[in-house]
Amino acid sequence: MVEITSATPQYSVRPATEADVPQIDTIVNYEIKTSVSNFNYGPRSAEEGLTWFRSTVAGGYPILVATTVVDDQEVVAGYSSLGGFRHKDGYRFTAEYSLYIHHEHRRRGLGRILLKDLLVEAKARDFHAIIGSISEGNEGSLNLAAEFGFRVVGTMRENGRKFDRWIDNTFVELLL
Ligand SMILES: CC(C)(COP(=O)(O)OP(=O)(O)OC[C@H]1O[C@@H](n2cnc3c(N)ncnc32)[C@H](O)[C@@H]1OP(=O)(O)O)[C@@H](O)C(=O)NCCC(=O)NCCS
């Protein structure tokens, strides 16, 4: 594993541990409840969060967190991770990224730092193609992906349904 060195004056990035999972779940569950950036309908349980963490790590995929200190407590302000993109053998060098910043910590450069370090990790682990799936209306994610050279592959129309409406999904890809 490469050493994680990115840091801002207020935040630092490191590999996630199981102890971070409850705070990661809180970030994910806020998005599940309020947005279409995550297509789940109901909250992720603590047990599901741990299962996700353990299977991601066991699968050879990285999970990074950006943390800061509030009242002497370390707080997880965002995370990035990779996961499998389809399951047949030939897809093993392709991974899909996830990137979530706590809503109170956005537009401070954390998404940029976590994606940058995730791509360093991806290269170190010999992944070849990184895929992003961005639901409609998420201009921030599209802008950020474009900044890193992701190419828009195409938009799948109405392949998601949430909050009683159909949602388009744009796929982006970066070859490492
Ligand atoms: C998308 C997301 C990860 C961006 O994280 P962030 O830490 O707020 O982004 P950054 O501060 O690093 O911004 C980097 C660049 O991304 C773009 N960007 C980020 N948020 C944006 C927004 N709301 N509107 C337009 N562009 C945005 C800008 O180009 C920005 O650069 P700038 O601040 O110099 O203009 C964050 O909004 C988030 O977690 N959203 C909910 C979950 C989600 O959509 N995840 C992605 C699924 S693919």
From TrEMBL:
Keywords: Acyltransferase, Transferase. This is N-acetyltransferase domain-containing protein. CDD domains: NAT_SF (cd04301). GO terms for molecular function: acyltransferase activity, transferring groups other than amino-acyl groups. Residues 11-176 form the N-acetyltransferase domain. The keyword Acyltransferase applies. InterPro entries: Acyl_CoA_acyltransferase, GNAT_dom. It comes from the Eukaryota. Gene3D superfamilies: 3.40.630.30. Coiled coil: none annotated.
